[in-house]
Design a protein that fits this description.
Oligomer: heterodimer
Strand content of chain A: 25-35%
Order of helices and strands of chain B: EHEHEHEHEEEEEEEEHEHEHEEH
Strand order of the largest sheet of chain B: 5-9-4-1-2-3-10
Largest sheet of chain A: 9 strands, mixed
Distance between the termini of chain A: 58 Å
Structural class of chain A: alpha/beta
Number of strands of chain B: 16
Structural class of chain B: alpha/beta
């Protein structure tokens, strides 16, 4: 079976986001960019399914600037077969992403789309669910375990009280949570091999999707800072402060 | 303007997150109805009818809604939206699962995890793991919103709204519930607890969490953990406090052996009083703590237990 893995190029996980002084957004100039960590988990899961012989082809798709090719190359080096870059410098909201991905699904005919549960930049956590709704596919979100069996996906999901297991008919959308797997580092030979794997260059126009803006960003501001507190010398002092100063115990 | 609040519940108990979402809905302004989607959830519906400021409770009861699976929730909510200009639900794993489907079906953008209502169409939400706050204005005629419960006070009870039964969607749907492993605990629920005590990688092992649990029981507190402690297998995933885990805002948060990674801070920095116990005096957790104790937790925890 064929799997589509959408990935997003975002600020690197280890870089602290800094708000621009004019409130227009987060400063991304000269900041290290990487694949969204939840997307890496999605790529890894698809590659593992291919290694098990369940999946025959992995198509990676990214939507964004020309540099998102590097993100696709990373996925190809991990083991994906080919890439599609839908190139745009515009803001692409999750709903537009879902519409573009729906068009890619129509063209590619995958049995499953595996993607990260959320991107660590906008933290929207909605693209996978929206794609599933637009395709009228079932979904297994926040997956911590995935098995494919007899045309169905058995998905264990991380929910507030613990874990929940669902059986969803394929084709389906799966979104990944942190504990699904630990993504591999691409080996040097695989990085070299990835350079020869094909990436199709597309634009949103190729899929006849207009990038509408539904949410107008008014401003981006710093979160409120907490005041630094005091260092206490002993457990006894701590308990005293909590009882008599803060009054919380 | 009419607003629909989709309740969070487990068919037996109405979650406090629902009351908080009603407060967010009231800030938008308009007639507020609550939707109870469940199976044998009559008590939950009567409970919701008592929330102040609620016009009506819509109660859909059926097997297809027993676990509020996303496909069935979409089929239930989308047709109802003819009568509403906004739909809100708590940003729990449940709400995050089904509400984006509703937004896509309505061709609108969901406004995820709002922490403030600036106007009926303008909202504040955290981005970049809480390192920035984004104010957005929705141009959509229908607003589809998930609400971070800890950012709003719970609506009071004392109301007496009417409960109307509505049909549950018939199905079949392409997903089915198989099983559930819920963490059993007599302690309060993490997101609703007045006191939370969390352990990090510094705890060293799952067994050592017993030290934290004993203190939790003395304080009537919930037990949480950092992502590092969960990833190390010390405790189950639903203990995780942080941007990708649970967001908590108790009156007292005690962080033990937690260095204070950005993603953890995003999940607890709205707590009223924060205590940090860590042997590394340079740990970032001390920058947000009201009271810091630089100490070996294996000495400090037994002392703390004895002092309470």
């Amino acid at each position: 079976m064929k799997v589509l893995v959408p990935v997003k190029r975002v600020i690197d996980y280890n870089v602290k986001a800094r708000v621009k002084a004019d409130g227009s957004g987060v400063d991304l100039a000269n900041v290290k960019m990487s694949m969204n960590p939840f997307g890496e988990i999605a790529v890894e899961e698809a590659v593992r399914l291919k290694e098990k012989g369940v999946v025959s082809e992995i198509v990676v798709v990214s939507i964004g600037p020309t540099q998102a090719q590097e993100t696709i190359r990373t996925a190809l080096a991990m083991g994906a077969d080919r890439g599609i870059l839908i190139q745009t410098d515009e803001t692409v909201e999750p709903l537009s992403v879902a519409k573009l991905l729906k068009a890619v699904v129509a063209e590619e005919g995958p049995d499953m789309a595996i993607l990260g549960k959320q991107a660590i930049d906008d933290d929207a956590n909605q693209t996978g669910q929206m794609l599933a709704a637009l395709l009228d596919w079932p979904q297994g979100t926040f997956a911590s375990k995935l098995e494919i069996n007899d045309g169905k996906a058995i998905v264990t999901r991380e929910i507030d009280g613990g874990l929940q297991t669902l059986e969803v008919e394929l084709p389906a959308v799966i979104t990944t949570d942190l504990r699904l797997n630990e993504p591999r580092y691409a080996s040097l030979p695989n990085i070299m091999k990835a350079k020869r794997k094909p990436i199709d260059m597309k634009t949103p126009d190729d899929y006849a999707v207009a990038l509408e803006i539904h949410l107008e960003q008014i401003k981006v501001s710093e979160p409120p800072q907490r005041k630094a507190g005091v260092i206490v010398e002993s457990v006894a002092e701590l308990v005293d402060k909590l009882k008599n100063e803060a009054g919380v115990i | 303007m009419a607003i629909l609040v989709v309740a969070e519940h487990d068919n037996a108990n109405l979650s406090d997150a629902t009351h908080k979402t009603v407060t967010a809905a009231a800030k938008i302004g308009g007639d507020i109805d609550i939707l109870i989607a469940g199976h044998n959830a009559g008590d939950v519906a009567s409970g919701a009818a008592e929330i102040d400021g609620v016009r009506a409770v819509l109660h859909a009861d059926g097997e297809t809604l027993a676990k509020q699976l996303a496909e069935a929730m979409q089929a239930l909510i989308v047709p109802l939206m003819d009568g509403y200009e906004a739909v809100l639900t708590p940003a729990t794993t449940n709400g995050k699962n089904f509400l984006p489907r509703v937004a896509a079906a309505l061709n609108v953008m969901q406004i995820s995890e709002i922490i403030a209502v600036e106007a009926a169409d303008t909202f504040v939400r955290p981005i970049y793991a809480g390192n920035a706050m984004q104010t957005v204005k929705s141009k959509d005629a229908t607003k589809v919103i998930t609400v971070r419960p800890t950012a709003f006070a719970a609506a009071k009870t004392g109301g007496n709204a009417t409960v109307k039964s509505i049909d549950a969607p018939a199905g079949p749907f392409k997903s089915a519930f198989v099983s559930e492993e819920l963490t059993q605990s007599d302690r309060p629920e993490l997101t609703a607890a007045k006191i939370v005590i969390s352990g990090g990688r510094g705890m060293g092992s799952g067994e050592n969490f017993a030290m934290i649990e004993r203190i939790a029981d003395k304080l009537g507190a919930a037990v949480g953990a950092s992502r590092a402690a969960v990833d190390a297998g010390f405790v189950p995933n639903d203990y995780q406090v942080g941007q990708t885990g649970k967001v908590v805002a108790p009156a007292l948060y005690i962080a033990v052996g937690i260095s204070g990674a950005i993603q953890h801070l995003a999940g607890m920095k709205d707590s009223k009083v924060i205590v940090a116990i860590n042997k590394d005096e340079d740990a970032p957790i001390f920058q947000v703590a009201d009271y810091g104790l630089v100490a070996d937790l294996f000495k400090a925890l037994p002392e703390l237990e004895a002092a309470l």
